[in-house]
Amino acid sequence: MKYQRRESTAGIPPGSLGLPLIGETLQFMASINSGRGFYDFVRVRRLRYGSCFRTNLFGETHVFVSSTESAKAILNNDGGKFTKRYIRSIAELVGDQSLLCAAHQDHKLIRSRLANLFSTTSLSLIIKHFDELVVQTLSRWEHRSTVVVLDEALEITCKSMCKMLLSLESGHELEILQKEVAQVCEAMLAFPLRLPGTRFYKGLKARKRIINILEKAISGRRRRSSGREAYDEDFLQHMLMEDGKASSEEAHRLTDAEIKDNILTMIIAGQDTTASAITWMVKFLDENQEVLETLRNEQLQVAKKTSHKSYLSLEDLNEMPYASKVVKESLRMASVVPWFPRQALQDCEIEGFKIKRGWNVNIDARSIHVDPVVYNDPNKFNPPRFEDESMPYSFLAFGMGGRSCLGMNMAKAMMLVFLHRLITTYRLLILKARAIV
Ligand code: HEM
User: Fold this and answer.
1) Residue 61's beta-bridge partner residues?
2) DSSP 3-state assignment of 209?
3) Residue nearest to ligand 1 atom 36, measured at CA
4) Ligand 1: which of 105, 157, 405 to mutate, judged by most atoms within 8 Å of the beta carbon?
5) 185 among annotated binding-site residues
6) Is the pLDDT of residue 2 over 60?
7) What residue spans of 335-434 are helical by DSSP H?
8) Which of 22, 55, 135, 356 is buried deepest, with most CB atoms within 10 A?
C-alpha cells in the first residue's frame, strides 16, 4: 500500500519492473506454463496494485488498465494517441502485413478490403457449412462414451475457416494446414527463442510452410481464372477478384503478401477463439442447470419450426433471443481474448497516471468483465442480465472501435449453431473440466 502511494505521487503507475533487462518475463512465462493460464500473471498484479499497474516484459514497459473509461479513451483513440502493438514474436508469426500488426494507415486500407468479405451472404454460407460439420461431428459422438469438447470444437472451427477462406474441405492438404496452424498458435505463447527445437522456432517454420501452401493456392487460382475455369466462392477468390478490379487504382490493391498474411491471420484469429468460447459455454451450461433448462425449451421450439429443413439459416438464428444472451454471457465470463495490446504514440495520462511515449498499454478486458461496479454479481452466469442496457464499454469480448473483431457475427453464429445442435441432440454430463485459456 505504501509502495503504491509513493509510486502514484511520482505519477507513474505502480508495479514492479523486475530484474534488469528481462523484467518480469520469467514470471509471465511461468504463469503460461503453470496450468493457470497466462492471465494469471495479470490477475495477481491487478489484485496487488489496483486497476492500473506497470510491469516489464521482454525488455519493454507494459501498463495494464482496467476501467471502462480508460477502455473507451484508448479504443476510441480520438486523438490518435495509440496504435495497436503485438510483441515482436507474434508479429513475426502472423506476418508484418497482417491486420493484427499493420501500422495505422496500412491497417485502414487492409481492413476496408477485408471487411467487404464479411457480408450477409458469406455469413449465410458459413452458417450452413458450420451446421453441416456440427451435425456430422455430433452424430459421431453417439458411439463414444466421452468426448473432449475443446478438441472437437477446434477441429470443426478450423475446418470451417479453411472452407470459408480457401474452399479446403477435406484431404491431405487440409490435414497439413490444420497441423501447421496448430504449431503457429502454440508458438504465439512460447518464449521467442530462435533456436532449432524450440516451440517458437517450430512455429516460424510452420508459418513458412503455410505461406508456401497459400502461394501455391494463389498461383493455381490465377492459372484457372486465365483459363476461364469455374472458380470457388471463397475469401481467397474474392480477394483476387478485388485485386483485378483494383488494378487501375494501384494504391488500393492487396499485395500477395497482404493476402497470404491475412488468410493466415483469419484462420488463427477465428479458430482458437471460437473453439475456446464454445468450450467455455458448454462448461457454464453444465454448471447452471436452470439456464440450461430455459435454453432447452427455447431450442426445442426452434427445432420444431425448422424440422422440415436439413440446416439452420441466419433467420433461424434470429429466433433465438435466450440463446444469444447465453452466448454473450459465456463470452463475458470467459473473456477469451483477455487483454488488447496498444502502444502510446505520445506522452499522455490514463487514470491519473503518466504514460510515456513508446510504452505498451494493455486494456484488461477480463477485469472489466468481472468488475462488480460494472456487472452486478459478476461471477454468476446470468444470461438475462443483458436484457437491461449495459454500461458503455463494459462488454469487450470482441473489442470496440476501429480494431474490433471482424469475425464477430460469424463467431456468434457458430456458437449459436453449436448450441442448438448440442442441446437438441444430447443431454450434457461433464466429467472433468480443464482450464482453457
Ligand atoms: C469467439 C470468437 C472470437 C473472439 C472472442 C474474438 C475476439 C477478438 C477481439 C477482442 C479482437 C480485437 C482485439 C483488439 O482490439 O486488440 C479481435 C480482432 C480480430 N478478429 Fe476476432 N474474435 C473471435 C472470432 C473471430 C473470427 C471467427 C474471425 C474471422 C475469421 C476473427 C477475425 C478477427 C480479425 C481479422 C481481427 C483483427 C481486426 C483488426 O485489427 O482490425 N475473429 N477479435
Assistant:
1) 56
2) helix
3) 405
4) 405
5) no
6) no
7) 365-369, 408-425
8) 55
CA distances from 64 to 8, 39, 48, 56, 335 (A): 15, 12, 13, 11, 16
User: What 8-state DSSP symbol labels residue 83?
Assistant: E
Distance (Å, rounded) from C-alpha 204 to C-alpha 101? 16
Over residues 67-89, mean pLDDT? 90
Residue 163 amino acid letter: K
Q: What are phi and psi of 189, to 5 degrees?
A: -105, 15
Per residue in 7-29, pLDDT (tens digit) is 444 699 999 888 988 899 999 98
Name the residue among 315, 316, 293 with its Cα closest to residue 304.
316
Ligand 1 atom closest to Cα of 331?
5
Taking the domains of the chain in order of start, what are their residue ranges?
66-425
Q: What is the CATH number that goes with domain 66-425?
A: 1.10.630.10
> Could you tell me which residues are beta bridge partners of residue 15?
54
Backbone φ, ψ for residue 360 (5° rounding): -85, 130
Atom of ligand 1 nearest to the CA of 265: 35
Residue 83 pairs with which residues in a beta bridge?
343
The three three-digit cell numbers of residue 301, written as one number: 421450439
Q: What angle do CA 125, 127, 129 make, to 5 degrees?
A: 70
Upper half-sphere CA count for residue 241 (Cβ side, 13 Å): 11
pLDDT digits (tens, 9 = 90+) for 32-54: 877 777 899 999 999 999 999 99
Local structure of residue 55 (DSSP, 8 states): E
Residue 75's nearest CA partner among 408, 406, 409, 396 is 396
- Contacts from 38-45 at CB under 8 Å and sequence distance 24+? 38/189, 38/338, 38/437, 39/335, 39/338, 39/339, 39/366, 39/437, 42/338, 42/339, 42/362, 42/364, 42/366, 42/367, 43/366, 43/367, 45/15
